[in-house]
Amino acid sequence: MADEPAVEERAIVAKHHLLVRLSHWLNVPILAAMIVSGLAIYWASPVHQHPPDRITGSRDYLADAGAFVARHIGVRDVKAQREWFYNHFSIGVFQLAQALRLHWLFAYLFMLAGLMYVIGIFRSGSYRAVLPRRGDVRESFAMIRYYLRLGKHPVVTSKYNALQRGAYASVPLFGVLAIASGWAMHKPAQLGWLARMFGSYDGARFIHFWTMWAFIAFAIPHVFLAIADGWDTLRSMVTGWSARTGAPHE
Amino acid sequence: MSDEEVIPSESEGSGREGLEEAEADASLEAPLPPGSLADARDDIPPPRPSILHRLTIETQAEPHVVEAAALRKQTRRDFLLFGAGVAATAAGAWWLLPKHLDSVAVRASRERFLNRALTFDDDVAEALYSRNRIVQTYSRKDVTPLRNNYHNPTPGPGYLSTWSLTLTGLASGRDAVLSLDDLRPLARREQITRLVCVEGWSAIAWWGGVRFADLLAAYPPHPRAKWAAMESGVTDYYVSIDLDTARHPQSLLATHHDGAPLTLAHGAPLRLVVPMKLGLKNIKALTKIAYMENEPRDFWAERGYSKYDGL
User: What does the alpha-carbon distance between residue B159 and residue B269 come to, in Å, rounded to a whole number?
Assistant: First the structure.
């Protein structure tokens, strides 16, 4: 390369604003911390309970699901079975004080990251790329067919395909829902109007719990598809630019 | 890899923008569609897209041609920064997660950090609090069963015959020892409010008793007092209550639950009901209130929970 007199050039296109990239990666540890601490809080008083089991005394569907898995992977001890889910997906049982402190800390960080993201998408105008548009439902099904190897990739001339638009537009909305329901549970007296927007304090708990599953349901295919889409996509979320300068995805 | 394809420059102009400009251009200003300027004639102004169009319609990002060497340098820098962030995150996770704490020094630094976060959240709660904001009340039909969440065994009835409430830190300079009869001159109040436990469950309960504010008026605390140290000699439990909360019209010293005198399970004969605080502040079998200038100790705050506990 040193003996090349002409300057080597590359065409690139701006893809992700710096604040969008920062908040994207910050959300990985933040959401992980919110989930492992949140589940340890959930353990203390599960949202979804049934009458106590006659043998184990369990009331918790989530602990039951964990015990089911534990039994089938050879965990013998009944107590270990019952606590398996929380010992593997949260900071553990009887960790309420610690879990609450972590949850509040990361909740504030999550709101800060969300603010960075919002500033980023409006400064760059990239919010326009995720707004829904006519034909998105049809194109979403075409994308699903493509992912299931049942059809061809539809011609996409925009930054994202319809399925991506739907996902990237709804995840921030789930973030807003998680924050709003979180505050409704955290301050149900001073923010009583917010709790009533979720029906009641318990309504906010229900929504808050299920936003976690919404994030998980988004994140798992998101990671697979981002990797499948290739190096340019992954790199663009670190560097901000893409070398794909305009040719529509086929 | 896809980015190795040679992409012809499609950009207008010299295509000699520096990388910093490429970064700055990340804030795409939604330019007019290319070609619209060329079409413009002197007499006919170019059609401007509507505001709604400009605010909602995605525009294709303009490609830039940059020096490959500079791009590589910047990419390397970005990935090094990214790697540093990943390393810092891993170190932070190791430091924060309780299972990996072997050393006392690490534990102490982590506790200080988490306590600061907790204090910040308490400050937010205190800023949100207003003595004039009435906590939602419910009707008799909304009442739900109330769990007895005594962390220790529920006390036996032995203490009831000798029970009294001691007030210290009063403006008079003398302590007051009260019986339930001494509370009788104060106006009786009833309220149906939600009790929210730090564990996550809640219950709607019907309470009867006297306003804490009325007790404060009848037995005024020392003028410099800002806190009430609330103690139960029966259960060795103690909580701190700021006097601003104590003076809230819905802060009750309750003698009744569900229309009947308090049972042993719910703190007979007198307990605190503060619906603007977590359940753990609603101390049962209250025997002493000490007014003081500095924040008193709090049972659960000593065990890693927050101090203010405002809801």
Answer: 10
